[in-house]
């Protein structure tokens, strides 16, 4: 673990990786399971792992998701081999006796759900980022987006649960023709400092 990744790996994960707007290809169940098995290893606070994933692939599931999408996200999502709905379990703490057995971590999050809002959103966001990196490591391209009707997605895919949708990520082999020029990033001196 002490050796840095080579340039080819860094290019695949970061420098050459892009957010695509059109996709092709197929993604097997085995690949989706590999993807989850990688992303689940990323750290979250007290191993809370509040993210929950729905891999939307079948034509029936795509048709169900379609009406919840914003106009700008419809075509690219319908053409993507898989769209991942990433939600967060607002009662994630119920699984902590199993996930973090070292101490009584469940008690840290007992009480009104409002007290679990910030930790569930923070740690789900980390897991969404791990999903993107895991997908890239498996040779897949991604297209994360937030333009959708959350209440409708929750009703269609999470009814009767304590899970709320937060982000969608299209997966597949990205079409380079769908890319915009890479947007600028802040320099180190603009965004960071060493103290």
Automatic annotation (TrEMBL):
Entry's transmembrane regions: none
Enzyme Commission number(s): 1.-.-.-
Coiled coil: none
Keyword field: Flavoprotein, FMN, NAD, NADP, Oxidoreductase
Cofactors required: FMN
Gene Ontology MF terms in the entry: oxidoreductase activity
Top-level taxon in the UniProt lineage: Bacteria
Presence of the UniProt keyword Zinc in the record: no
EC top class, as a word: oxidoreductase
SUPFAM superfamilies: FMN-dependent nitroreductase-like
Location of the Nitroreductase domain: 15-157
Family: Belongs to the nitroreductase family. HadB/RutE subfamily.
Record protein name field: Putative NADH dehydrogenase/NAD(P)H nitroreductase Psesu_0423
């Amino acid at each position: 673990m002490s050796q840095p990744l080579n340039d080819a790996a860094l290019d695949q994960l970061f420098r050459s990786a892009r957010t695509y707007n059109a996709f092709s290809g197929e993604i097997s169940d085995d690949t989706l399971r590999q993807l989850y098995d990688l992303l689940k290893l990323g750290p979250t606070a007290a191993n809370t792992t509040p993210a929950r994933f729905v891999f939307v692939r079948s034509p029936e599931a795509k048709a169900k998701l379609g009406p919840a999408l914003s106009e700008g996200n419809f075509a690219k999502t319908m053409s993507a081999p898989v769209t991942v709905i990433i939600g967060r379990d607002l009662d994630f703490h119920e699984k902590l006796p199993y996930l973090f057995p070292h101490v009584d971590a469940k008690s840290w999050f007992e009480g009104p759900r409002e007290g679990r809002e910030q930790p569930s959103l923070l740690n789900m966001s980390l897991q969404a980022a791990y999903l993107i990196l895991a997908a890239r490591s498996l040779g897949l391209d991604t297209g994360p987006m937030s333009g959708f009707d959350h209440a409708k997605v929750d009703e269609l895919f999470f009814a009767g649960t304590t899970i709320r949708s937060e982000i969608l990520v299209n997966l597949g082999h990205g079409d380079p023709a769908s890319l915009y020029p890479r947007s600028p990033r802040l320099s180190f001196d603009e965004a960071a400092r060493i103290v």
